[in-house]
Every structure is written in C-alpha cells, then in structure tokens.
Amino acid sequence: MATMDASLSDTMADKPTHTVPIVGVGASAGGLEALREMFGAANEETGIAFVIVQHLDPHHESMMAQLLARETRLEVHQAEGGETPRADHVYIIPPGHGLAMKDGKLELTEFSRPRGMRRPIDDFFESLANDHEHLAACVILSGTGADGSLGLRTIKEKGGLAVAQEPTSARYDGMPQSAVGTGLVDFVREPSEILETLVRYFHRRASHVRELEDSASVSAHLQDICSTLRDVVAHDFSGYKQSTLERRIQRRMQVLGLDHAGAYLDRLRRDHGECDALFRDLLINVTRFFRDREHFDQLRFEVIEPLIDNLDEAEELRIWVAGCSSGEEAYSLAMMVADACDERGVSPLVQIFATDIDEKMLNIAREGRYPPAATADMDERLAEKYLQGHGDHYSVIPRIRDMVRFSNHSVIKDAPFSRLHLVTCRNLLIYFGERLQQSVLPLFHYAIQEGGYLMLGPSETIGRHDNLFEPVDLKARIYRRCPGRGTYPTELHAASHQSLKRQAIARRTAMKAINAEDDNALKRLIERYGPAALVLGPDGAVNGSYGRLARYFEFPTTAHGPASAAGLARPGLREVLLPLLRQAQEDRSRVVARDVEVRSEFGSQRVNVIADPLPDGQTLLVLREIEAFHPEADDDLAELGPNDGEVQILEDELRLARHRLRSTVEELETVNEELKSSNEEMMSMNEELQSTNEELTTVNDELKSKVDQLTVANSDLKNFFESTRLAVVVLDKDLTIRSFTEAASEIFPLKTSDKGRSLEEMTSKFGNRRYLEDARAVIAGREHVERQFVTDDGATYLFRALPYTAAGGDISGATLVFTDVSEMTQLEAELARERERLSLALKVAGIGVWEYLADDDCVRFDDTMAGMYRLDGAGSYPFQEILDRVHPEDHSRFQNDLRRAISNEKDDYDITFRLLNPDGSEISLRSLGRLVTGSKPARLIGVSFDVTADAREDAMRELLLREMNHRVKNLFAIIGGMVSLAARHADTKDMMAQTLRSRIAALGRAHSLTNSGDDQDFGDIQALVGAALEPYADHEGMTIEGPSIAIRTEAISSLALLLHEWATNSVKYGALGDPDATMKIDWCEDDGGGIRLHWTEELSRERNSEEREGFGSTLVAASARQLGAVVEQQRDERGYRLTLILPKSCRMISDKRYSS
Amino acid sequence: MPDDKRQKILVVEDEYLIALDITHTLEDAGFLVVGPHETVADSLEQLAEGMPDCAILDVQLDGEDIELVAVALTNNQVPIIFHSGHAKPSDLEQRFPGSYFCGKPCTPSHLIQTLRTAVSR
C-alpha cells in the first residue's frame, strides 16, 4: 500500500495560487502530426496554457513553433525561459535545453545527462506537478520509449489530470502505451478530442472549486461507494480517512463530468472499470529512496545496526515493509542492512517482506527500475554501491533485489507476517480512519517479536497504544515493542472475509455478507471437529490446510517456498498420495485410498484418504481416521526397515538428483544473470538508439514539412519562370547556365539541355558580348551592372546583371535579366520629338512656362519667362521679386487672382497685366494657369505670353471709337450750325431746304470716304474730289486728274464743304451750268509739302456775273480758314480759275499713332 | 468798347462753323462774344487782357487740351460751360467743380439757358 504526499491534505493556500491551468504536452517521434491535430482543433478560448516538450536534436534549429503556429489559433512561442505561461498560448521547448516550471515561470535547464539518456518530458511533468499541483495536466502523444510515464505519476499524485493519445491513432505508440500502462491515465483520446477534454475538465474544476463546501452529497454516499468498491476490488476503504476519500472521489467525478455523488455511485455499480480507476486513484502515492533521510539515519543507528549486532548465528533478520508502493522504501532498508552487514563483515540471512495491495506498483517494485528523481535524497555512496545507472534510469543491483520479497498483501485483511524484527509502515496510517488505525497497531504488536521495532511515518503516532510500544526516537517515529504476548486482532480479520481477490471477482455477481460469528464457528469446527484436510494445487503444492495435520505430514521449521504435499507426507501416506491425486485429477471425481497406515515417529494411524477435485483445479485431500492412533515403540522401526530402506534409497537418489538439479539451476541462474545484465546493456543501448531515432523522426517530420513548402515554392518559381516575359538567365560562379526563362531563349538559342553549359559557348542576338564581362564583374563583387544592348534586328534590351546570393549570403553566381525595351525606347524617342515640337512651338509663339509653388512662395521660370521678366535665366525666383516687376497698378489684381487660383476658388488663372521693366519700358503679359489637381503642396502651372501689341491695338480701337463718336457729334454740331446760318441767309424756305440738303449730302459723301470699310482713317483727295463732283459726273467737259494723296480726316469735312460750295457756284454761274463748258480739276504736291489744287473753268459763254457774296461764300471762307488754306481766284471773261493751296498739315503724313 | 454793358463771353471752338453759329446765337441773346478762339494759346492771350464773365469751351481743340484755359478761368472764378461731344461730364465736374456741360450737338436755347444760369450765379 502506498504513501501519500501531503499535498492533498495541505490547504492550497500554502502555495502561490495559480489561476491558469498549465498543460504539459509530451511528444516525440510522430508527435508533429499529433500536435497539429490536437492544436488544430482549437477554435475558441481555452483558458489554458500549453507547454510542449519534445525530444529535439540539440544542434538543429527547431521549426516546430512556425509549423504549429500555422495550424492553430492559439499563439505559439518557442520558450525562452522566464515567461509566465499565459492562457491560450503555446510554449515549445527550445533545442538543447530542458524545461521546468518554477514559481509559476518557465525555466530553461541544462541537461545533466548525456544525449540519448535524457527524459525531458518526465522532468518537466515533475516540475509542473510540483509547481501547479491540481492545476496541472499532462498529455502524452505519439513517441517511442516511455518518457512521460513517470512524470505522469507525479502529476496524478499532486491531483492533476493525465491524458494520453489513443495508442492506435499514434504513429509511434510506445509513449502512449506506456502511459496507459500505468493505469493512471484519466482520458485516452484521439488528438483532436484532447483539447476539448481538457477545456471541459478545467471548466468543471473551476465550478467545482466554488462548490467545494458542499461535499455533503459525497459524504452521504461515502459508505455506499466504499461498499461497492469493496465488492468489486475486494479492498475495504471504509476505514480510510473520510476527507481524503471524498477529495479523491470528487476528482473522479470531475473526470467523468458527474455533479452528483448519487450518479457516481450508480456509475460505480454499473462499471467495474470505474471501480478499478477509483481504486488506483485512492492508491496514488509518492515515495523515493530514503525519504526523510535523517529518520533513516536514525533508524540505522538505533535499530538496524543493533539488530545485526545482536543477531544470533543462523537467525534470520525479518523485516516487513507494509505499504511498500513501488518499493523504494523497501530497497532503502535493504541497502542500509546490506551496508551495515558489509561494515561488520557479516552476512546473516535477511528477509524483507514488502507488501502492497496495488499490483501495478508491485510490478514496478519488482522490476527495480527508477527515475533519477527517486534518488534525490540518497547518499551518493549508497547510490554508487547499490544502483546501476542506465542512462535515463537507475536499477537496483540484483543483490539488493534478492533481499526483498514483494507480495500482494493487505494489512487490513490478510494475516500478518510474524516473528519480525522490524516493521516499517510509513504514511499509510494517515489514510486510515481512527478505528482502523487503532486496530492496525495491535496487529503490528502481534507480528513483531519481542524487542523488535516499529517505524511509522513522520505524521503518524501510536496513539493510545503506548502500552504496546514505547518510543525509541520520537522524532523519527521509531518505537520498540513492549514485552507481552501478542494478541491477534480478530476484529480486524473478521472484517475481511475474503482472502483472495480472485474469489472476490468470482463473487462479484452475488455477494453475500457472511456473519463474522458464523465464520468463527466454522473455523472452530474445521480446526477442532473436522477431519484433517489439505487443499492441493494441480502440482501437488499445499495451498491450504485444515485441522490437525502433524500426524500425516512433516513440516520443516524453515519454509522455502510452497512445499509439495508428497514431499511432506509421512511414510505410508507418501506412497499413495501421488497416484491418488493423479487419478482424482484425471477422472475429475472423488477417489478414495482406504485403510492407509501412516507412520510417524510417534506411532501409526490408519486412515482413508479421499481426493476430491475442486472446480478451480485444486484438489481437496481429506484424511478420515478409521482407527485410533497406535503409538509405537522404537524397535518397530527395525521391522519396517527393509521396506522403508527401499524407499529410503530412492529418496536418497532423489535428494542427490535434486542437489544436482539445484546446482544446475544455480549455474543456470548465474548464466541467466549474466544474460540479464547483457540484456540490460542491450536495452540501454536500444534506448539510446530509440531516443536518437526519435530525434531523427522529429527532424524528419520537420524536414518533410520543409520539403512540402519547398515543393510549393519550387512550383511557384517554375510557374513564374514559365509565365514571365522577362528574359532571365541564372549563372553559377563559372558562368555555367543554371536556369533560364522561356523568354531568354529569344536572345540566346537556349534549350533545356543547355543547362550546365557555359554561357560563353552560347551565341546571342547581340553584337557584343559585354554581358559576360558584366556577369564576371558581378560575381567578383560588384553590386549590379546595368546597360542597354541592341540586337542585330534593332530591338533594344535593358540588361541588368545582379549577384546571385546563396542562403548563406555568399555570392554563388549571377542573375542576368534582359528586358525588351524597344517599344519604350521608341516611345522615348517619340516623346522627345513631341517635346521638341512643343518647345519649339512655345519658343516660336513666345510662350513662357511658369510654375508657382504655394508653400515656398516662389516661382519657377523657363528661359522664355525669364526673358520676359528680364531675369538671368530659367530657375526659381521668390514671388516678391516677380511681383516687384509687375506694374504697381496691377499688383493687387495680380496677387488676388493668384491667391484665388491657388485656393481653387476659381478654376483657372487668367490675367492680363503689365510689366514694368527696369529700363522703364512696359509690356503687357497674359498669364494662364491651372492648379495641378491633387498637388500637395499646391502647385500652379501656367503659361505667359506677350500681349503688348494686342493691348496697344485695343487702346487704339477704343481711341478710334471715341474719335468717331466725337466726329459724328461734331458733324451734327456743324449741321446744326449750318442750319442756323442758312436760316439767316435764306430767301425762301424751299431754297434753304434745297441748299441745306445738298450740303448735308456732300458732307455725307465726304464722311463716307472716311468710313469706307477698311481701317484707313484718312481720305484720299482723289476720292474726295470725285465724291464732291459726283452729282455732276455726267458733265462731258469735266476732267479730274491728280495723284492720290492722303488727306487728314479732320480736313475732309471742310474740304468737302468747300468743294461743294465751289461746285454749287459753278452750277449756278459757271461751267457746270454750261453744258458746253469745260472744266478741269487737277492737283499736285507743292514744294512746301502742301497740295495745290486748281479748279479751272472755261465757259462757252460769258460767266454769269450776278453772283453775290452769300452764305456760300461765308462757308467757303470758314472752310478755308478751318483748313488753314489759301484760296486764290483768277477770272477773265470766260475763264474762271480757283487755286486752293492746302497746307502740309492737311495731309496725312505718316502719323506716329499709326506706326505699329 | 469799355462801356459796353453786355456780359462778355469767351468762346473757344476750333470748328469754325460751330463757332460762328455760337457767336450768332450769343449775340442774338444779347451777349458780347470774346473770340471765338481756335487755340489754347490764343485763348490764354485773350485771358491775359481780362477775364470774361463766362466761357464756353470746346474740350478738345485740334490736338490740344483745353485744361490750361479752364484752370486759368477757374482760378478767377469764371464760370465755365464745356461744350463737347467728347469728354464725359463726370471727369470734368470732378476736375472743375461747379462747371457746366452741354453735349454737342446742343440746341441754341439750351446753350443760352445754361449760360444764363452760369452767369447769374
């Protein structure tokens, strides 16, 4: 039976309270797949932190974190040490380190053992269990070997949860199989279900903690649970400490997801597997070599050494370790005894009985293999002496192993050992209830011989039984048995009515509680009143006995194993026994040997021997006395001698044969031991190999993933190579072609088979082969080379040579990239031509381009602009400098418009303004601009051109318009004046009207000359004369001749009026009134630049002399005066000649206003 | 004729016909016409001899601006009537506040009425 760690009875407040459950995940070969499946299932918050421990090659970078991160929604890190694991994060062990939990933090540890002998999973689980106790869980996934199984035990001891991958689903089932084999695994699941199981468990746990107070329901059902358990596993836990039982039952309920103890009870009744699970949970234990070492030192000093010293010769030292669990304590005692004996140079017989009710633990104990953690408290000298290291575990040397005998035995229900020198029963009583504790102590008193010792656990005492034991060392809990006859505590054994679990199993279906008193009576009946009887096994071994057998059998004082009934039988019985048994077994029926005389040294007894085969293969042998016992004298022996002698000889031979057999067996055993040790070596080598293999498998898994990725990348690359229009050639260091794209074969005549050939051998479409030099230059270390190549058929390629950098950063070749830029080059040329054309147009048109940058408040000018502003040349100028050139009157307009355009208030900038050049000259510019859409800072781009000429023309036009307006109004004024004047002179109304109309008509004709459609603002004297005389053009004698001379507009009205008056006069009195007269009007330039006009009339008759000075004369005088002209008049009888001398000022001589 | 009681009106007009007409009109209305003059120089010369009671000025003589004459008159508080088809009244009124304006062509009665208003001030 087991010891128990204090953790479950401790309050949880002793340790720092962790709130996040931590799950240690152990995986090895084939683990990647299982981990992916496990973590891939994470689709919500788990509230749990995970730590993955693997067997990794210490020299190989692990890609685990990246590989796993891709599969799960949880965050995955490679552990760095010092982290406090956070919920929903996964931490992965880094290569070359172990991992441990300490004070809630992850800690990287150095491996103390050589590679191949490390058990990182066990180590981590142990530290996790110690640090997180009930908030810890472990998961064991695919892997070979058994790493994790020992750590799992610690997890369970501390109240944690254990989960293993379903072995059939694991690629390598070694680790899960071994974990399941401990019988401590709570859940066996497919990897994809593990996460959900954990989440549910911890979620329930959280809710259970809240309801911890309400354990009433478990208490209420405790008795029923115990009795159900007793029925099934044949161990009664009802005497155990209630609180411990309740806690452990509750944990099972949590695992099963049951909330009510009643439901659990039902489950327990229905499911015997659950009974086993609970049984195992109740027996969970922690122990190690020399636990509480100082107590052991005390034990050695106070007990063991004195015992050995006082041992009689041939006396056997008998020690009982009750509740030995996995055997560490028993082995510790054995080592101590062996060591003490060695010190003394004695070698007494030593028997150490180590018992427990947990068969699984006993198996571990018998194997004698322990993890290094178990040896923590051990003296190095003893460890060296009695333990053999096997890499990741130690085994107890055979000498010690042989000293200890492990057996399945219950303190409570099985008969105790007897005549013991020492009983140790440590950390067992703490599980027992008061009543049970008090009955066990008398039992020990009974079992220990007088002067023997009892050792209990540090927290156990003998209670009120101080009459049975007296303390030797209170602290170490060592007691000496008080003298007095031992009383066999019937009470205890009465309660245990089954001696064998086998029977219990047989009775599981129909259990009947047998009254304890009945049992006693039956016993008494058999012992006293029944015939002597034996239960024999199929091999004749004595399995049980009833009644008085001394007359029939000879029991040796020292028992060595199960004795053969035939060997023990006294003469007489011995001869019939074997045939009888054989027959009974063969026939499966009762057989009797009648009237057999059994002889002993005391006398003879006649009996009928009945062999009755039992259903389980054993045989009941009943000896029924048929006569009274005949005591015999010694001389009878002689009589019987001859008969007896034959048997004696046979027996001697048999003994001899047995002796030989025994020595052969011993030899065999020796050989066997040797083989065993070789085997162990082989095993350890195997383990190393296996562990290496696991590392390799892990690396292989990672490599496989890497290869998968590479395949994808490769096919991407291949597709890229096939699809790209880029001509790429990859060369290695000596210009050998490594790969190339389809497009490259347009330049080089490349075929797939050319890979591996040197590029130097290949021809190309280019005239020169400078790309080879460039490739060499790049390989030699130049960063990159770029140049253009023109093919023979005129295409242009942009060529780039780049170094090909290998993964390590070394240059291992060159990449040549050819880009067909023919189209681009062509476009470029076209663009250049276009630009040339545009700039030429700009230049020819005198258009300047400018750019205004709002942020810098500066203006960028091209050459033309700079020329306009008389600046040094194209460039950037501060705005103020430009503004200073603008005519002051245009300043504000210039600035405002610009501002508006920049702030986009007005779409376009359009302004005409004047520039004041330093030399005082003025030019007008028109600027057009537009805000560059989306420009930031805002930019305005525009053009300017010189509009000085236009401006001047505009001004001129306006002037002309005004002039014309003035002239028209003047004309009206003149007409007004004429009307007034005419009114003064007119004789008759009709006359006045007629003369006025003809005068106005003349004025109109003259005026139309100034307005004759073209822009000329001057009259021609030729036209003027023609117009004045137009009404008389049908006069045959009239000639008009003279050069065309321009006359000022201002002069036209007066000249026209003057000519009109002359013509009117002529009609009245002169040539125009005489159809036969001739008339000549001619003119020429005179010497002073003026015009001399002659008006010559030759009348056919005498000139009418009635002419008088009228208004006409006034008008002529006024007109002449207005013109600044002189009129000369000559007349004779028939001739009449007028000469008009016009001053130069009347002529239209190139006026400056008209120069353009 | 120093004893002439008629009000003296200076006429500056380069268009002879119009000047003649104005002269007739004014004389008919009982004014004494000084001039008419055709040039700025003549006008200034005339003014040097004595100020008229009022002046009718053509704004633009043959290429000359009447301004000098107008300034001289204004300085002597002689009322001015501008007679022009040219200049806008606002310009002149601004430059010569209190001056009158008769746009060409103008009826004789309007001219006389304006003249009377001007001299009676």
From TrEMBL, chain A:
GO molecular function, one term: ATP binding
Pfam families: CheB_methylest, CheR, CheR_N, HWE_HK, PAS_10, PAS_3
Domain CheB-type methylesterase: 16-205
Alphabetized PROSITE patterns for the sequence: CHEB, CHER, PAC
GO biological process, one term: chemotaxis
CC per GO annotation: cytoplasm
InterPro entries listed in its UniProt record: Bact_Chemotaxis_MeTrfase, CheB_C, CheR_C, CheR_MeTrfase, CheR_N, CheR_N_sf, HATPase_C_sf, PAS
EC nos: 2.1.1.80, 3.1.1.61
Keywords annotated in UniProt: ATP-binding, Chemotaxis, Coiled coil, Flavoprotein, FMN, Hydrolase, Kinase, Methyltransferase, Nucleotide-binding, Phosphoprotein, S-adenosyl-L-methionine, Transferase
SUPFAM superfamilies in the cross-refs: Chemotaxis receptor methyltransferase CheR, N-terminal domain, Methylesterase CheB, C-terminal domain, PYP-like sensor domain (PAS domain), S-adenosyl-L-methionine-dependent methyltransferases
Ranges where the PAC domain occurs: 783-833
Active-site residues per Swiss-Prot or TrEMBL entry: 28, 55, 147
Annotated SMART domains: HWE_HK, MeTrc
UniProt keyword Ubl conjugation present: no
Substrates-to-products reaction catalysed: ATP + protein L-histidine = ADP + protein N-phospho-L-histidine; L-glutamyl-[protein] + S-adenosyl-L-methionine = [protein]-L-glutamate 5-O-methyl ester + S-adenosyl-L-homocysteine
Coiled coil: 647-713
Domain CheR-type methyltransferase span(s) in chain numbering: 220-462
PANTHER family assigned: CHEMOTAXIS PROTEIN METHYLTRANSFERASE, PROTEIN-GLUTAMATE O-METHYLTRANSFERASE
Record's protein name: Two-component system CheB/CheR fusion protein
Organism expressing this protein natively: Sphingomicrobium lutaoense
Automatic annotation (TrEMBL), chain B:
Modified residues (4-aspartylphosphate): 58
GO biological process: phosphorelay signal transduction system
Source organism, top-level taxon: Bacteria
Residues of the Response regulatory domain: 8-119
PROSITE patterns in UniProt: RESPONSE_REGULATORY (PS50110)
Residues spanning the signal sequence: none
Residues annotated as transmembrane: none
Record keywords, A-Z: Phosphoprotein
InterPro entries: Bact_response_regulator, CheY-like_superfamily, Sig_transdc_resp-reg_receiver
PANTHER family cross-referenced by the UniProt entry: RESPONSE REGULATORY DOMAIN-CONTAINING PROTEIN, STRESS RESPONSE REGULATOR PROTEIN 1
This protein's name: CheY-like chemotaxis protein
Provenance organism: Sphingomicrobium lutaoense
